[in-house]
Write a structure and sequence with these properties.
The structure holds 2 protein chains of 2 kinds. Chain A is mainly alpha-helical. In chain A, about 65% of the residues lie in helices and about 0% in strands. The longest helix of chain A has 27 residues. In chain B, helix 1 links the parallel strand 1 and strand 2. Classes of the chains: A mainly alpha, B alpha+beta.
Chain lengths: ~425, ~80
Amino acid sequence: MLNSLETEVSPKSPNPLIPVSGQTLAGFGVAAAGLGAAYLIGREDAETGAIWLLALAFGFTLQRARFCFAAAFRDLFLFGSAQNMKGVLVGMAVSTLGFAAIMYWLVSKPGSGSLPHEAHILPVGISVVVAGLVFGVGMVIAGGCVSGTLYRMAEGYVTSWVTMFGILVGLAGISLTWNWWWDHLIINEPKIWLPATGGLGYSGAVALTLVALVGIYVLLTWWEARSGIYSPSISRKVTGIPGFTDRLSHSLSSVFKNGWPVAIGGAVLGFIAVVMYTIHMPLGVTGELLFLSQQALGVLGVNDIVMKGLADMGGCTGLISDGFINHNFAVTIGLMPGALMGALFAGEFRIRYPRVIRRYFQAAGGGVLMGYAAGLGIGCTLGAFFSAIPSLSVAGWVFGLSLAGGAFFGTKILKRLG
Amino acid sequence: MPDGEIKVLDVRGEICPYPMLITNDELDKKQPGVLALDVLTDHAPALSTIPPQALKRGYEVEIDEVRAGEWLVHLTKS
């Protein structure tokens, strides 16, 4: 079924922890460039500069925690492991509290009919289910979701560049077919916001969301126990009591060198999402990529694309801002130098080519599916799931469950492909 | 630890979930089982996916970074 890919490498090679000063230096260079860009962008528009800075932290965190939504869903079915999904749940719990406070500040009476500006409260219906299923299959086949693809591009994965090409193609596809979905389905699908539903109010909606997140956490723990999966931290050899410099270098290593526990990564991402929402909007990358794919369509002569209803939709793709360097640009493009910085400081950057040609086709195909579905779902795992559930939106849950379904089918396909 | 050469399974270039799938396949295909295996990977997430699978199969795990962004995951039957 699977090809074993074996080549003989001397197993007796010494294993010193070689300090990669070149990569560390390059890391400082990227950090300086990233901060310099923040200064230049911030001089034009302070908010965009601040979002760029947060995006650097966002990309750095994704890279350090090896945060992967695709793995979060896929590994549940492939190995019975919930390690990544638990990190996602922690992040959403943190965001839920912060988002509730921000939304309360924006709309203090949830029953009044108005929805909080910029919250990711999206239509609930068949379109979300289709989007989740297709996205779930795509991310498993491609080996990463949209945000995962962005930060792995920065880490030097060549297949991720191919996946991004596929995503842009998929987004071009939804640009040309969106109006069909709008006319037949989305126009009639309601936006369901928990605080304004059934007299729940903010406290009821937050309580319900947190209880559901904790409930799923417990369920996943049972799932892991059933699968016989246990993920202990790999112990390191201890030799004597460490001195001051050892302790200091240990602290630095745990931030810059060793991968972060995924739950810590999730909590930090949740926190970054809250700060970003206080500045303008929750996390999301689909809007910028949709914009870029439409620019590419324009170059090919396909102009004047009108996607009905999308401008008033909210979520990732709702905001059409002026100029090239706007908030969407800052969060999407800014995460890449952040991730590159993380990879360089850890000495992990390298150009990686897949060893099987078939992986390029998987990357491209999975990318097309994800791009199309991210457009249809008005967001990817980030915008329509990780930012939507804390927005107390029912669509986030529907998208999440559909992603799980898609990932389930995706793993079946993956096993077939070998 | 058996005498002689330990087989190195080179999964460099593969991304998740393949490093782990290929490792599992290698561990499962031989009966009564592999006593020791070194997996060479350049995909950091594999460092947290291979160990739980190996532990489940009764292996001890140790990880060494052999060079920048490249790790050897030592698996030994305990």
